[in-house]
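Input chain follows. Return structure tokens only.
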Amino acid sequence: MPSTPIPIFWDTSAIREAGFHDPDCQKLLKYSISNDVRLFISHIAWQELRTQFLQSAWSEVLKLRRQFDAVQRRQPSSLILQGLRAPVIDLWDEPEIQARSHAAMDEFARDNRITIVPLCADHADRAWHRYFEASPPFNPEVTDREKRRKDIPDSWILEAAIDVKRDHSSLIAVCHDGNLAVALKKVLDIRVFRTVAEVVEHLDGAVQSVKTIKSVKTRDSAYVPPTEGPVQADGALAAVFTEAESQFRNVATKVIGLISYLGSPTKEQIYALLERSGIPLAIAKNVAEQLALATIIQDTGHHYIPGNKEAGAQATAAVEPEIIRLVTGED
């Protein structure tokens, strides 16, 4: 039986491949928040991801600044703009964005219960030993040391994973980087998933099996489940139930289809689209909440993400024309 929380070493190559807003990433983070899994990311990989996000954000700011400067230069010669006051723009500077990148990553790790594995004093010695011995993640067939040095960051990440495995024998990993994935499997003798989608599919079964076993263990041994059969409904009562079930099914299909189609929509986005289709807000919220309680969809707090992928695909296919009309704004 798998232990809970299930320890997972998460390499950021898998994050870069999918992105944090990917439905499977959102679901993995929800497992972490609920303490069904414990996520570990090495300090080296986390900082590499931070600098990638930082570079992307700073590039957007620079792009906006260049566009503003171009407008400012054209103002004196523009027939329309030359009569207006001088434009003003207040953008963040690089040190401000740098500082925010550290704070944002720290907040994200804390809010999602991600453990950042720190650098240890002996990591450098251990990583360099692997380099000179050409042991994993270094390829002994690569004789050019310049090329071999490209795998030095992976060796630091591997050492972090070794430390985690020492305290968590049931560790599994998710890693999209082929070379590092092979090293994790070979050195640690653990199961390595190549995508977040694969590890989430594994967790859907593993976590549910643990919860089922725990619920059985905590029951009173003398407990006898009720043997009452379903309440029979005939005539007018049966007709009312049939109509209510039909209405729920129609709305639920739209909810599941929209969430599956959009991937990770906000609740407000889903409610707004359903209102445009003629469904009152109260009914939309009620149906979505019932689907979340049944784990057909997942509620992350501010977003909904798909739960049952097969059901999501069927629902999307069933109402695809209406979904496209709602999303594109066509009448």
